[in-house]
UniProtKB/TrEMBL annotation:
Species of origin: Paenibacillus rigui
Location relative to the cell: Cell envelope
InterPro entries linked: Peripla_BP_I, SBP_2_dom
Record domain Periplasmic binding protein: where: 44-298
Protein name, UniProt field: ABC transporter substrate-binding protein
Keyword Signal: yes
Keyword Repressor attached: no
CDD domains named in the record: PBP1_ABC_sugar_binding-like
UniProt keyword annotations, A-Z: Signal
GO molecular function, one term: carbohydrate binding
Gene3D superfamilies: 3.40.50.2300
């Protein structure tokens, strides 16, 4: 009787084993060939410096994408935008640590080429944002058309100044392709107006104190009546000094980016217009396309995240408010 009872249970045991096998085979757990769960991919984001609202916004975009696409995100940057060697070291460290993809805002167009190619040589996808790198191994550049952005700044300044004006330019410094292209676009646009004289071009990197000192020099020694500041720190420095000298509205100022200081100076009439970018999109799309590259998908060679000219007249338009304050719902 007992043997018969055990034989009658065998089909039930077989059925249960089959069901268990089906459940396990349909499990959503991702496995490696050895049977252990696969680790999440890691994307390394290396930007120009570890401070400033602009780079903070880039990071927020990257973090949003990392969360959406379920990857680990390592963010690093040198303390200063002039520290090219420091950024090269960070790239090399990310490669040595086994990153799966690299998203890079390069401090120097040529200086970061070798490190980027070394990463690509180890089959690590390299994507640049904001600033390009001189290497065909880079899969994609996500940023703006800097030459056209410079032309926009020049055109807007000419609208603000008199027919015969003395214009000064404050830029980051030589070596960064985006800064060079932005300045060239500006100069080409101003060259269309023979009565407009470019009296000086100065470079203050990301040193706010130096930006202010150079602005004072441009106003007192060069007698500039219009200034174009081509990056965020220069924009703050120029507006600070123009305001401190009591020249708001007398000296016409066109800047770049939408830092809180920029927006306040725009409202107060110290700045006449600012050319804004979309750093959140740069960070987000950098990580998004890094993930797709890891997966072996084809990604676009260039993604233009766009620019827009913001002045007192259009800054309160609803669409522009979303660009100026991307995190306010």
């Amino acid at each position: 009787m007992k043997d018969g009872y055990q034989r009658s249970r065998l089909p039930l045991v077989v059925v249960l084993l089959v069901l268990l096998s089906c459940i396990l085979s349909c499990s959503p757990v991702k496995e490696m060939s050895g049977g252990t769960p696969a680790a999440k991919s890691t994307v390394s984001l290396i930007v120009k410096m570890n401070q400033g609202d602009y780079w903070g916004t880039v990071r927020m975009g990257a973090e949003a994408a990392a969360k959406e696409f379920n990857v680990n995100l390592n963010v690093s940057a040198p303390a200063d935008e002039k520290d090219v060697q420091g950024q090269i070291q960070l790239v090399n460290e990310a490669v040595s640590a086994g990153t799966d993809a690299l998203v890079l805002a390069a401090n120097d167009y040529k200086g970061l080429a070798e490190a980027s190619e070394r990463a690509a040589g180890q089959r690590i996808p390299v994507i640049t944002i904001d600033s390009e790198v001189n290497s065909p191994k880079v899969l994609s550049f996500i940023g703006i058309n800097n030459y056209e952005a410079g032309k926009k700044a020049g055109s807007k300044l000419v609208e603000q100044v008199s027919v015969t004006s003395r214009i000064a330019v404050l830029n980051f410094g030589a070596g960064a392709k985006n800064a060079d292209e932005r300045e060239q676009g500006l100069l080409d646009e101003l060259a269309r107006y023979p009565q407009v004289e470019v009296v000086s071009r100065e470079y203050c990197y990301s040193d706010l104190k130096l930006c202010r000192e150079l602005t004072k020099k441009l106003l007192t020694e060069k007698h500039a009546d219009g200034i174009v500041a081509l990056h965020a720190i220069a924009s703050i420095g120029v507006a600070d000094e123009v305001s401190a000298m009591g020249l708001a509205g007398k000296v016409q100022v066109v800047t770049f980016d939408n830092t809180p200081e920029d927006i306040e100076f725009l409202q107060e009439g110290v700045i006449q217009a600012t050319i804004i970018q979309n750093p959140f999109s740069m960070g987000y799309l950098g990580v998004k396309y890094a993930v797709e590259a890891i997966q072996g998908k084809k990604i676009p060679k260039f993604v233009d995240t766009g620019t827009k000219v913001i002045d007192q007249e259009n800054m309160f338009w609803s669409d522009n408010q979303k660009l100026l304050f991307p995190f306010v719902k």
